Amino acid sequence: MSIRKKIILILLCVIVLYSVVQCGIERLVILPSFTSLQRTEAQKYIERFRYAIQNQTNSLGDLCADWSVWDDTYLFAQDKNSNYIESNLIESTFTLIKLNLLYMCNIEGEVIWGKIYDLQNETYVERKEFPKLSFGKDHMLLKHNSTESSIDGLYLTEQGPMLISSKPILTSEGQGPIRGTLIMGRFLDKNMIENFSRDLSTKFRVEAIKDVSDKEKSKHILGQISKDRPYVIEQYDNDFLRIYGIESDVTGEPAILITVDVPATIIAKGRTATRFSHLSILLSGAIIIFVIYWVVKKTILVRLAGISKSIDEIIEKQDFSVRTSINGSDELGRLGNNLNKMLKHVTTVEEALRTSEEQYRGIFEATTDGIRIGTMDGQVVKVNQAFAKMHGYSTEEFDAMSPKHWIDCDSHNLYEQFIETVKAGKTFQCEGRDVRKDGSVFEVEVHCIPWNYQGKLHTLTIVRDITERKQLYETLDRKQKNLEAIFDAAPLGMMLVDDQGFVKRVNDVLAKLVHRDFSEIINRQPGEGLACIHASEQADGCGNGPFCSQCPIRNLFEGVLSSWQANRGVEIQAALLIDGKEANPWLEISAEPANIDGNRHVVLAIQDITKRKHTEQALREAMVQAKMANTSKSQFLATMSH
Question: 159, CA 20 to 30 Å: which among 93, 337, 448, 602?
Answer without folding.
Answer: 93
